[in-house]
GNAT family N-acetyltransferase (Heyndrickxia acidicola), 175 residues
Amino acid sequence: MNYSREAPSKVTIIRYEKKHLEQLMTYTLADEQRRYTAMPLDALKKCEEENNRHPILIMLHESCAGFFVLHGGEGARNYSDNPSAILLRAYSVASDYQWRGIASTSLKLLPSFVKYHFQDKNEIILAVNVANLPARSLYNKCGFIDTGRRMIGKKGELIIMQYQLNVHNNPTSAI
């Protein structure tokens, strides 16, 4: 494991392309983290089956440091009554890239990314397991707010969180 700390300013988020598949094939997560999120290859399969699921990579320079899916349509409607919401799901940072500020940096880039690539969206929503305290803290620190809504998921109670997109910000500022 490489313990050197990279500057979070080198973090970008991009749409997945097939050329990144090889990097995702070696993607690792600790068992405790796998308990709460999908592995990228499993999530990619679902993205191929549903055109409203969009795989996204968190890059550190040219290396894939993380992965998530932005899910519109019916996926988002399961968590929000807002027809202009998009769901953040399967979010993770690979084991070798944790504790470098990559997660918080990527989540801070996310609103601009969504406003640029999904211009009809005005809200990002997510569901986080009540027991996943590190993730809850991270999302809260990055501006996601507990909606007060709860659901029961496969692994227990989920907290529904949201991030309202400000339409007055420049959507290309952090792309």
